[in-house]
Amino acid sequence: MMRPLFLSLLLACASPGFSQDAPPPAANQAEEIEFSANLLTYDENADLVTATGDVILTRDGTRLTADRVRWERKTGLVEADGRVLIVDPSGNRVVGDRIALTDSLKDGFVSNILLVLEDGSRLAAVDGVRKDEVTTLNRAVYSPCAVVDANGCPLRPVWQIKALRIVHDPARGLVSYQKARLEMFGIPLVALPGLSHPDNFDRNRSGLLGPDVRFNRFLGAEVSLPYFISFAPNRDLTLTPFLYTGVNPVLGASYRHLFDAGPIEIGGRITWARGQTLAPDGVSLLDTANRIRGNLDIKGQLNHGDGWRSTFSSRLATDDNFLGRYQISYDDRLRSTWNLEHFGGQSYLSVQGWAFQGLRATDRADTTPLALPLVDFRWRLPLQPLGGALMLHVNSLNIHRAAGQDMTRALASLQWDRSWLSTAGQRLTLTALVRGDVYNTRNGELADLPLYAGENGWKARAIPLVAADIEWPLAGALWGGTQTLTPHIQFVASRAGVNSGIPNEDARAIDLEDINLFSLNRFPGFDRWEGGARITYGATWTWNAPGLAASAQLGQSYRFSSEGNLYPDGTGLSNRFSDLVGRFNIRIGRWVELSQRVRIDNENLAIRRNETDVTFGTRSTYATVGYFKYNRNINLEDLRDHEELRLGGRLPVGRFWAVYGAIIVDLTSRADDPLTVNDGFQPIRHRVGVTYLDDCLEFGLSWRRDYVSNINIRRGNSFLFTLSLKNLGI
C-alpha cells in the first residue's frame, strides 16, 4: 500500500559523532538515529559529513541504504547516491540513483526513482519532488503487474498507467494522475482524465468502481458506472447509473450497514419507462404508458442476544416484467419473509411471515397468499419415559387471500423415540406419536383446485402413530476396498381417513423420492397425513477404495390399506405397492463424479423420474452433463412433466486464457406434456465466452443467446465485456 514516500528521511542522521575529528552531535540526534558505514569523515572547514561504503541509516522504523551519503551542515542539504534504497515501516520501498533532502527531512528530490509498494505495485519516474509532505513524480508510470518472469528475465507489464505527473498527498490519502493513459499488452488504449485512487487502496474509500459493458438486441449497448461512497467502515452506498442506447437509463443503489447486531443491505433500481403486458391473445406483448418502474431488495440478519435472532428478506417489483426486461432476474415469483428465532438449549422457536408476488402472466395478486404468522416451536423434554426421548412440537399458520381460500391452523404433537443396538449390530428404533390439529377454513369454494379445498368452518382431527425401524449394517472387504450393505425395514401404522374436509396449503408437491421414502409422513408440510399401515423396505450399499467410491440405495413401500384418491396419479404412491426409488453415486478420484436419482414404475418398470448429473475434470478444466426427465403423467400444473438437458464446460488455453460454454435444451414434447408448445428439442439459452486472468488483470467476453420469449425473457443475443484491474477498482 502506498505510504508517504520520503518519510522524514532520516538523513539528518548522518551524525558526525562517529568520526574522531568531528564535533559531537546534538543529544537528540544521537538518541534518534542508528548509523553505520565502512568509512565516515568530517570536513571541519566545509562543515561536511561524508559516509561511504554500505551506509545504513535507521530512524523511527525507516531504513536508508546507499553507497554514499553527504550532509552539508551549512546549507542543510543531505544527498545519497549509489544504489539508494529506502524502506518505510509499512514495507514500501523507494529505489533511486540519487536522492537529495533538506535537513528538515520533509522536502527533497530523487532522480530516476522506483517506488515498490507494500503489495508489490510499482511507481517509476524520471524524477520526483517532495514538498510539504506532498510527493510529485514526473513522467511516471504505475503498474501492479509482474516485471520479470519465472526465470527472472525482464517482462513487459500486462497493463500500466503512464502519466505526465503523479501526485501523492498522504494527508488526503490520495494518489492522483495528470494526463494519464491506460496501456494493455504495450498498446495504448484509453485516456483516463481525472483518475485518482486511495494511496492505500482501502476498500472503504469512496471512488469510482470498474464499469461493465454489455450489448443485447433489446436494450442496446449498456454501460454501468458504479460509484462507491463510504460513510464509515461499517456503512457504505454504491450508486450505479445504467446507460442504454435502446431504453431509458436506470439508476441503481445499494446501501449496506453493519450494526453491532448484524448486517442489513437495501438495494434496488428505478427508471421512468414504458412497461409491457400480455395481449389478449396470450402470446404477444403490448406496451404501456411511461411510468416509474423499478425493484427493491432488502435483506439482513440481526442478533438480539440471549439466543434471539431475526432474519428478513424482501423482493418487490413495480410490475411483472421489469426484472426480466432489464436482465436483472428471470425469477417468476418474488418472496418476502421475516423470521424471528430463539435458540434454547433443548428448544427452538420460530415466528415467520411470508408474502409473495407472482410475475407470471397468469398470476393474480388477489389470489396470492399471505402467510402471517407461521409459528413453529420444538422442545426436547427433559423426561425420559421408558428410556426414550420426548419431543413436543407446536405449529400454527394463518393464510389470507384477498379473493381466495383462507385458512387458520394450529397443531400440537408429542413424539417418543427410543433406539437399541444389538450385539449383532442391528439398530432398532421404536416411535410413538400423538398429534391434534384444529383448522378453520374460509371461502373454501375459491380454492385453486378442488383437490386443495377445505370445508368452510372448524375442523379437528386426532392422529396417533406407532412405528418400528430396523437397520443392520454388514461390512466386508471387496476389490481392494471396504463395502457396507445396510438392509432397512420400517413398519408404520397410523389412523387413516383424517384428511377429509382439511384444506391443503403446504402439502401439494407430493412426490416419492429416496429422501422421504422412510419418513413417517411422506407428504411435505402438515395439511395432508399418510394414514393406514404400511411397510417400507430397502437397502443401502457403499464401497470405498483408494481413489474410488460408489454407493447405491433402492427401496419401496407397501400399503396394507387403500386411501382412495389421497395420492394423485403419477406421484409413485397411488397404488398399494409404491414405485421403486433409488440413488446411485460413483466417484473416480477427483476426475469423475456421477449422481443419479430415479423412480421406477412398480407395474411396468418405466422410468418415471430420472435426474442425472455427471462431472468430468478438475476445478479449472471440466465438463458437466445434466439430464432430468419427469414422466409421471400428472395433470396438476405445479407437477407437470418435463425433460431437460444441460451441458457445460471450461478449458484453459495456455497459462492465463480459458474458454467456457453452457447450454440448456428443453426436450419436452407434447407426448410428455400436452400443454407444451415445444417439438421435443428446444434450446432455452446458451452462453459461451473467453476469460483472461493473471495476478493483476482479469477480463472476459461472453455471448448469451435466449431462444424463447415470454413476458420476462426476449429471444435474442446479449454480449458482456468485463474488465478488472488490480488495485484500481476498475
TrEMBL record:
<dbReference type="Pfam" id="PF04453">
    <property type="entry name" value="LptD"/>
</dbReference>
<comment type="subunit">
    <text>Component of the lipopolysaccharide transport and assembly complex.</text>
</comment>
<dbReference type="GO" id="GO:0043165">
    <property type="term" value="P:Gram-negative-bacterium-type cell outer membrane assembly"/>
</dbReference>
<comment type="similarity">
    <text>Belongs to the LptD family.</text>
</comment>
<keyword id="KW-0472">Membrane</keyword>
<comment type="function">
    <text>Involved in the assembly of lipopolysaccharide (LPS) at the surface of the outer membrane.</text>
</comment>
<keyword id="KW-0998">Cell outer membrane</keyword>
<keyword id="KW-0732">Signal</keyword>
<dbReference type="GO" id="GO:0015920">
    <property type="term" value="P:lipopolysaccharide transport"/>
</dbReference>
<dbReference type="GO" id="GO:0009279">
    <property type="term" value="C:cell outer membrane"/>
</dbReference>
<feature type="domain" description="LptD C-terminal">
    <location>
        <begin position="292"/>
        <end position="657"/>
    </location>
</feature>
<dbReference type="GO" id="GO:1990351">
    <property type="term" value="C:transporter complex"/>
</dbReference>
<protein>
    <recommendedName>
        <fullName>LPS-assembly protein LptD</fullName>
    </recommendedName>
</protein>
<dbReference type="InterPro" id="IPR007543">
    <property type="entry name" value="LptD_C"/>
</dbReference>
<dbReference type="InterPro" id="IPR020889">
    <property type="entry name" value="LipoPS_assembly_LptD"/>
</dbReference>
<dbReference type="InterPro" id="IPR050218">
    <property type="entry name" value="LptD"/>
</dbReference>
<feature type="signal peptide">
    <location>
        <begin position="1"/>
        <end position="19"/>
    </location>
</feature>
